[in-house]
Amino acid sequence: MRVMLTGNGAAAWGARLAGVEYLPAFPITPQTEIIETIANWIDYGEFDCRVVMLDSEHSMITAAGAAATTGVRTFTATSSQGLLYGMEMLYTVAGWRAPFVLVNVSRGLASPITLEPDHNDILAARDCGFLQLHCATCQEVLDSILLAFRLTEDNRVRLPAIVNLDGFYLSFTREPVQLPSEQQVAGFLPPFDPQNQGFRAGAPFSQAVAVLGGSAYSYFRYQCHLAALNAEQAFSESAALFSEAFGRSYQAVESYRCDDAEVVFVMMGSFATKAKAAVDQLRAAGQAVGLVRPLLLRPFPVKAFGRALAGKRGVAVIDQNLSPGYGGILHAELAANLYGHSGSKPVLVSFIGGLGGRDISSEEFFEMAKITRQAVADGSAPPPRLLYTGDELREMKKWQAIALQQSGRGDQT
Amino acid sequence: MTELRFRTFRDLPADHLLGTGTAMCAGCGGLEALHEIYDILGEKTVIINAAGCMTLLAVYPFTPFRGSWLYTAMASAPAGAQGVRDALDLLLASGRITAAEDLQTVVLTGDGAAYGMGLSATSGAIERGLDFLYVCYDNEGYGNTGQQSSGATPHGAGTATNKGPLGYPGYKKDLFAIWAAHRPAYVATVIGAEPLDLARKVERAMRLKGPKLILALAPCPTGWDFAPEETVQLGKLAVQCGVWPLKEYRDGTVVHTKVPKQRLPVEEYLKRQGRFSQLFVPERNETVLVEIQAKIDDYWCAVERHGQVEE
C-alpha cells in the first residue's frame, strides 16, 4: 500500500510493523509526532504496545535498555538536546549489549538553541557503541527501522541501533511511502529472541557489573567494537533479504551517477537529495559529477566507501556538522579511511553547510564542484569552507544592529 | 502487628542470603541493613543499582547476590526498574515467562542518588505507580568518593568538603516527607541496629503493590569517623536520641513505630563521631549544639501533638 507519510509518520509505522512491544518516551521537537502517533494507535486499539512517559531522556534510554535486556522488543525516539541529555545511558546500554532501536530526529544543538536540523547531535553519539543508519527519504526511514531491528537482534551484533532522520526536512515532509504488509514484515523480521539475556527467578543474571582494572574493561570494550564490525556483513545479508522481501535494495554506501564521475559529493541525510538534484543539473551541463552517501555510518563501511571512491579524482565532503577547532567530522573519517592504502587517492575538499537547517542551494553545489575540480588540478585541497552567502551576511549585520540597539550598547561599538 | 511474620527476634530469618567478602568497609551500616533486608526479600529479586558504594558489591566475576543484578547509572536506577518491571509484565501477559519466574524489582541506591541526582527519576517512578521497592542506604554524604556533603548531610557535620570549624552549614533534606508527598503505597525509615522493626517494615512493603520506599540510616565508620565495631551501638543511639525517627507512611498517614521512651541528649550520639568533633573541641560550640537539640525536641513535640504514634 502506498501512502503519504511524514518522516515521523514513517518512523511510527516502522516501529508498528516491527511489532515493538515497549516504548519508553519523552517529548522533544521535532521527534514528538512519532510517540504521539504510536500512543494514539494504542489508545484507539489499532496497535498493541506499551508506552510509558519517563521523566527525561536519561531515564527513557535507561528504561529502554533495561526492557530490551529483560527480553521484549523495544523502540524509542528522541532529538538533539534529548540525545545528549541521555548520552551517559547511550554508552551504558550499548555496553549492556541491549538490542533495541532508537530513532533520532536530528536538530542543531544549543547554543544558540534552535529547532532545525544538523548532525552534531547524532555525531556526538558516534562513539557510544550504537549502530547508526542515516536516512535520506521517508521510505528509507521506515525500511531502516526494519533493517535496524534485524541488525540489533543479530547474534553476531547485539548492539542497539540509532536510525537518524533530519528534523523538519524529513520529519515534517510528506512523501509517498510504500507500506509493507504485516505478513511481508513477519517473513523478514522474526519475533525477538532474547536468547541468554533476561531476568528470571531461578536463573540469576548479573548485568553490567563493575570491573576492576584495564584488562577486564578492555576485553568488554573490544567485544563491543568487534560486534559493531560484524554489523557490516550483517547489514549486507539483511539488505539482500530485505530486497527479496520488499523489492527495495539498500547498500551501506549509496553511489549515485558515480560510474564515470571524476568528482563526487559525499553527504549524508536528507540534504543529500539536494546534492542529487545538483548532480542531475551538473550532468545535464556535461560535467562528470556523482554523489556518494553513507546509509550506514556505524560500523563505518570501510570497504564500501573504498569501492565508491575508487578512481575518483576529487571528493567534496559536505559536512552538516562542525567540530569547532577542526571542521567536518565526516571529512576526518573519510581522510582517515583513505590514508594508508596503496593506489592514487582523490583530493578531499571539506565544506561545512546546512547547520541549523540552513539551506544549501544548487548554486552552492555548483561552486563546490568547481572548487573541487580546481583542487584536483592544483593537486592540493584548499582550507575547509564554511558555506555562507553575502546576502546572509548582510541580513545578519542588520540583526546585529537591531540587537545592539535593543541592548542599549549600540553606542559603545 | 499480629498479622505480620516477625513478632519477636526469634522470628527473624536464621539463614543469611547475602554472600560475604565484599568490598564494603568494615562496620558498614548500609551493608548491615542490606543483609537484613535481603534475608527477607529473598532471591526472587532483581537489584537495580545506582552509582554508589554498593556498586562495588558486584565486581566481575563475583556477586554476593543469589538473585539478579543490574547496574544502571547514578541518576536513573528507578527508570531501570521501570523497564525491567514493564518487560516482565509484558512477558508474563504473553505467557513467555511463568508467574514462578517473576521477580521483585528492587532499587538500591545511596543518599547521593536518592536525595539528589536520582530524585527526578524516583519522582517519575512513584507518579507512574511503578510496582517496586526502593532501598536507600543513607550515610549522609557521598561516601564512595570520600564523604563530601550531599543533600542528606546533617547540620554541623564535618565532611571532605566542610573541614572548617562550622562543618556543613546546610540542613538534612527530609526525603521521607518528599517521598510521602507523592502518596506512594508505602514509605518507611529503618536502621540495621533495629532489625525487628526493619523486618516488619520490609515484610509490610512486600505485601503491597505499587511504589514502596525504604530509607535506611547507614552509620559509616569511614565517613563519620568512628570505630567499625560501634556501628550497631551508634545506630541504636541514633534512635534513642531521636535523631533517626523510625516511622512509616501508609494509608495516607505517618506512624512512628518506635518512640524512644526517654530521649537521650543528642550529644551522646554526636560526640562518638569524629565528623562532629569540631562541635566539642577545641571548645564547645554551644550555639550549634543547642540548635541541633532544639530541632530534635521540636520534631518529637510535633509527633506527639499530631498523635503520629503507633497504638
In short:
The complex is a heterodimer of chains A (413) and B (311). Chain A is of the alpha/beta class and 413 residues long.
Oligomer: heterodimer
User: Mind telling me the C-alpha Rg of chain A?
Assistant: 22 Å
CATH class label of the largest domain in chain A: Alpha Beta
- What fold name goes in the CATH topology slot of the largest domain in chain A? Rossmann fold
Task: Give the averaged pLDDT of chain A, no decimals.
Answer: 96
Describe the global form of chain A.
Answer: globular
Find the structural class of chain B using helix and strand composition.
alpha/beta
The span between the termini of chain B is 10 Å
Q: Which chains make the largest contact?
A: A-B, 42 and 44 residues
Shape of chain B: globular
- The string of secondary-structure elements of chain A, in order, is EHEHEHEHHEHEHEEHEHEEHEEHEHEHEH
Q: CATH homologous superfamily of chain B?
A: Thiamin diphosphate (ThDP)-binding fold, Pyr/PP domains
Question: What proportion strand of chain B?
Answer: 15-25%
Number of strands of chain A: 16
- Helical coverage of chain A, percent range: 40-55%
SSE-based structural type of chain A: alpha/beta
Approximate helicity band of chain B: 25-40%
Taking strands numbered 1, 2, ... along the chain, how are they ordered across the largest sheet of chain A? 10-12-11-14-15-16
Largest sheet of chain B: 8 strands, mixed
CATH architecture of chain B: 3-Layer(aba) Sandwich
